[in-house]
Fold these 2 entries.
Entry 1:
Amino acid sequence: GQNIDQPTEMTATEGAIVQINCTYQTSGFNGLFWYQQHAGEAPTFLSYNVLDGLEEKGRFSSFLSRSKGYSYLLLKELQMKDSASYLCAVRGVNDYKLSFGAGTTVTVRA
Amino acid sequence: EADIYQTPRYLVIGTGKKITLECSQTMGHDKMYWYQQDPGMELHLIHYSYGVNSTEKGDLSSESTVSRIRTEHFPLTLESARPSHTSQYLCASSVGGMSPTDTQYFGPGTRLTVL
């Protein structure tokens, strides 16, 4: 199985940078996903890492260290619309199923 | 981006009723999934399918059942709803096959309340 931990809440100011950490302990690893979920809405795909290193996509970047069982999502130049829950999910090896963390609620203040 | 639809979006029903939550996708994805999510909690996989006539139970035990008769359609049925079934139900799909990322795309969800 998978054990995935991420902070419950974070607060930041508009224009700032926030880093959301995710640690995992898994019986097998075949990729890590980050999703954004606004209240009452469906999760939307943000990023995917399967090799160590940083993946950059505009204002969002995601980092993975497989040896440490660690990932982070970096949100730069925060905007009010970035207020949402951010979900870390790990994919298993044999069955390709995703296991999700409980999500980190980010609140952006003016 | 996948086009995936769920109906109804909201449903309030009484105990003992039979209900079916609909999920359809128009991208021809082979894999489809049902998740259950309570407020502030993680998504739990309750059912998945890797293609027509293929269904498997997920990691979280559920009293619901699913069917996959057509590629695009993956309905979830509760034969007799109870208050403990109150939750948000999210459907997802992914392309499957040899796709290296096999990203899952989610529908808007059905918020079910059983009185």
Entry 2:
Amino acid sequence: GENVEQHPSTLSVQEGDSAVIKCTYSDSASNYFPWYKQELGKRPQLIIDIRSNVGEKKDQRIAVTLNKTAKHFSLHITETQPEDSAVYFCAASSPGTYKYIFGTGTRLKVLA
Amino acid sequence: DTAVSQTPKYLVTQMGNDKSIKCEQNLGHDTMYWYKQDSKKFLKIMFSYNNKELIINETVPNRFSPKSPDKAHLNLHINSLELGDSAVYFCASSPTQPSGNTIYFGEGSWLTVV
């Protein structure tokens, strides 16, 4: 069945450094890849997304890259700040399927 | 204005009881979902509804029964609660099928079965 693998499961970085989270999906029909941030005790919220016809997308300190051939996509956070500390989820969705398949999450800690 | 609202936020109940969680969205979306987040933080789809019709039932025990009286509401009833049902249950919605569309989550319902 469809599967999304996410690595690493935990990531600690110093404030100001960059963080990279990687995901791999199995369904070659997947065409939409959102990233969600979940702070402690809160709901997951969309931070950035990318569609399969785009290789890269950037929004201020956050960027996402997609390699369709390798079925990989990654989240890049630059100049990390303590408020970036949260659990980040990647997801993949395919046309005609009424669901996202989520990765297993990455707990990011930004150390001041 | 809360886009996706669910009640109750916290629920502590004994094994064997029956409980319900209610969800409403005011975004005009056609599709609604229930996701379960366990203690390891894994987010797993339980059900998807589109315009009140069940689209996905992701091998959830039949003790879980969703009901969508209209496309703005999706409730979840759980019979004979078990310890393993303890989790956070998130209701969510999207304009239509999620491919290419953002899913918006409710605040979650923390269910603890004792």
